[in-house]
Amino acid sequence: MQRKYNDGDGMKIDGKMPPLKKDIEIMMVNISSLERGSTMSEQNTMRAARAAGMISFMFLLSRILGFIRENLSGRLFNRFETDAFFAAFIIPDTMYYLLVGGALSAAFIPIFTEYLAKGEEEEGWKVAATFINITVLLLALFTVLGVVFADWLAPLEAPYFSADKMKLLADLTRIMFPAVCFTALAGLTGGALNSYQHFLGPALGPIFYNIAIITGAFWLGPRLGIGGMAVGVVAGAIGNFLIQLAFLSKLGRGLYRFGYIDLKNPGFRRMLILMIPALIGLSATQANIAITNVMASALPEGSITALRFANRLIQLPIGIFASGVAMAFFPLLSRLAAQKEMGQFKTNLSLALRFIFFIMIPSAFGLIILRYPIIKILFEGQKFTSHDTMMTAYALLFYSIGLFAHAGILMLPRAFYALKDTWTPVLVSVLSVSLSIALNWLFLHYTQLGVGGFALSFSIMGMVNLFLLMIILRKKINGIDGQAIAVSFVKTLGASLVMTGAIYLVQQIVTHLAGRWALNGHWEAAVVVACGMAVGIPVFFVVAWLLKMDEIAMTIRAFKRKFGRNG
């Protein structure tokens, strides 16, 4: 059986890059022409944009549940337990990312999407089945080995832990290791769904995953301690996979072949070739995470938890917005690259990056200025003390500096993958990760930065990675509409600075009035955050509008067209 995927010829931009206004006119035409019967290529652009919105909403819900999960872990369990719990994720996560994470973006989605675009769905599923079945066998083997040898693996995760803490780490590693197999299966089925441009399943899975962990902490925690959360991790991973399998079974229509392996399939061999550099790059990234965890185990108790919670906070805007944009635009970029529509490729890539920076830069400034009250509201209480709040806020300050960069590098490597270039992101990743590891060592031994040093090296790594990828990609495809990206970046930075000033003023006023209003603790923090956001967000958008930022113009134009027509 074959299913046809025909994409009409979209608008081509030949020669030099269009000026900024020209680019906006092009995007406005795409928006309006969709309603009047646009070309298929333009419809794909708008479909990706709508998908990004839906995914962002689902990610928002997932991230909210994720913070409830982290809140429970911080409040219900002490730092002795949470340090061990988060360290126990290192080796299982490494196995997942090495065997699945890079393969999905670098090899599986581009090649599987290519088969679908050519109408060769059945052949595409032969390749997919071979890849999935081999991956499952390898993961099953690693899971068995991980459970059996957990006592030997624990010292590799955090060698400076005390004996009691090391035993807890080993027990948690043994419980959670099976989750990696089901998480990998969820990743593979989600990758296939993304190739069909179906995003609901992959967005719903993490929601169930978080609910399961929350349930484990709340209901099993009193009886099993932090082990209750570990059981929830396994249950959540299984549920995540089953949800996505249900969606995929409707799209694939039985084309997946259980147990089918054809090592000579040319498509599978192409996947292996594309995977090799991705695996090298991810090995470097995971080595950085593991080495950071090893070094952090030498810091005072609670440091691993502080780094984890601070990193989760910067992942909130990344997960809500940047991940949705990258996930939605990646299949589209893959199709445009396969069809040699490089004009549309550049336009869509530039649009994605500009919107990512438009959200990430003010998010970073907001996290910096409001970091103490935000952490106090989200985590402080019961076993999470004010000292833990201070340590986490300190790490968050340095993490926030590189927020825009880490959001941008969710999108840029995918542009290379869409062009079937997996080596460039790898080489850049290895270079930036090597820099990060060196900086971690220097900050640990020659400064008093503590957890702030680890967070700062993470930010520097992201910025180096981002700028190198942009420079190389610009040369590779003869421009990435860099002028439009730079202008948007500078304007966003200016609007964010004004916003930060407004939030600081509000913060001072609320703090001054806190005594008169009899506010203290969490109530004062909540009022500061609420008032700061209520003033800061409108100020940012007003300044952005006064600066005639194109992202504002496109958003308002689309809003007026949709609701003006319906109204």
Let me know the largest β-sheet.
Answer: none
Overall geometry comes to globular
Strand content: under 5%
Helix % is over 70%
Poorly predicted regions: 1-40, 561-567
Kindly state the mean pLDDT as a whole number?
81
Strand segment count: 0
Number of helices, where a helix is a run of at least 4 consecutive DSSP H or I residues: 21
- Helix-strand pattern, N to C? HHHHHHHHHHHHHHHHHHHHH
Structural class: mainly alpha
Rg over alpha carbons: 24 Å
What key attributes describe this structure?
567 residues, mainly alpha, disordered C terminus
Could you please describe the fold and organization of this structure?
Helix content is 83%, strand content 0%. It is globular. The longest helix is centred in the first third of the chain and has 37 residues, at 40-76. With 567 residues, the chain is mostly helical. It has a domain at 77-280. It starts with 19 loop residues before the first helix and ends with a helix. Helix 1 (20-36) crosses helix 2 (40-76), helix 6 (150-157) packs across helix 7 (163-176) and helix 19 (482-514) runs antiparallel to helix 20 (521-546). It has 21 helices and no strands.
